Amino acid sequence: MKRILIFGDSNTWGYDHTQYIPELDTCRRMREDEHWPGRVRALLGDGFDVVTDALNGRTIMVEDPYFPLRRGITGLRVALDAHAPLDLTVLQLGCNELKRHFNLSAGMIAKGMDMLVRECEQRYYGYPAPKVLLIAPAPTHPDIGKLRSASRFGDEAYQKSLQLGALYCDIAERHGCGFIDCAELGFEINDFDGLHYSRADHAKLAPVVAEKIREMLA
Question: Are 101 and 62 in contact, with CB atoms under 8 Å apart?
Answer without folding.
Answer: no
